[in-house]
Amino acid sequence: MIRKITQVLFVLTILLSLSSCMDTKQKTQAFVNSYNNSAANFSNEIIISTEAKAFHNEKRIEINVETSIEQNENNKSIYGQMFPLFLKEALTTDQNVKDLIEEGVVFDVNFLADDRTSIAEFKIDQKELAALLKKNAGKPTISAESLASSDSDTQLQQILVMMNQNMPFKNNDGSKILKIYVNDKKQLVYQVEMPEDVLEILKNNAANSLVKESILREGQLQKVASTVSRYGIKDIKYEYLNAKGKIVNSMVITEKDLKL
């Protein structure tokens, strides 16, 4: 689920940093050309393809990202929140992109699921840019340039900072993702607040094992396991919290479980 976002948005923040000193139309076309020329190099298990189009008469750039993410209500709920928030912040830390927006160019971004239906979409115009800059005033910012020049551990920490400052994210089932971090065992940890009725079930270790088996059967986790392994992460841990923030139970999915 959230593990996919790291790879997808890391790629996009770098691609979205390309522009030069020209007039608005030239900069728009240069951005689109650079984006499309670079995009093919970043196709992987998650990003099938991505393309930018310039609509000069409308002063608009349209970006479509075709992914392998399954279209369902839970994915749409999570990615519909996280993709826009994370990428909006990445966009608005890039000076070239900010320049285009301030010159009146609108960015339309659409993430497509595996059936080519929309799983997340958003628009950034001058009004949205102003609101984002006001909202993020004083907060740590992550630029595409800093991601590109950082080592892998720093890249991951920067991305997690950006994600966590937009938490919590609510799932359709009533659960909330509160925090994502890397612990001292190099495990990627998701702290999830669960509804009380679900927590009662998850207190049972046998039920917890069934949840683990179900996650592994879906195959989605294995698809992105190689992506997080680039950061030296072998295990993924889920900590289940109650409404008071107390950890009730946890589950670890290991490298062996994933059969990497």
> What count of domains describes the coordinates?
2
Distance from first to last alpha carbon: 18 Å
Counting H and I runs of at least 4 residues, what is the number of helices?
11
CATH class of the largest domain: Alpha Beta
The secondary structure category is alpha+beta
Q: What would you call the shape?
A: elongated
Biggest sheet strand line-up: 5-6-7-8-9
Low-confidence stretches: none
Mean pLDDT: 78
The radius of gyration over CA amounts to 19 Å
Strand content: 15-25%
Tell me the helix content: 40-55%
Describe the structure.
The strands form 2 sheets. The chain has a 5-stranded mixed beta sheet. A 4-stranded mixed beta sheet has the order 1-2-3-4. Helix 1 (3-15) runs parallel beside helix 3. With 260 residues, it is an alpha+beta fold. The chain folds into 2 domains: 24-136, GMP Synthetase, Chain A, domain 3 (2-Layer Sandwich); 167-257, GMP Synthetase, Chain A, domain 3 (2-Layer Sandwich). The mean pLDDT is 78. It is 47% helix and 23% strand. The chain has 11 helices and 9 strands. It is elongated, with a radius of gyration of 19 Å.
Can I get a quick summary?
The chain folds into two domains: 24-136, GMP Synthetase, Chain A, domain 3 (2-Layer Sandwich), CATH 3.30.300; 167-257, GMP Synthetase, Chain A, domain 3, CATH 3.30.300. It contains eleven helices and nine strands.
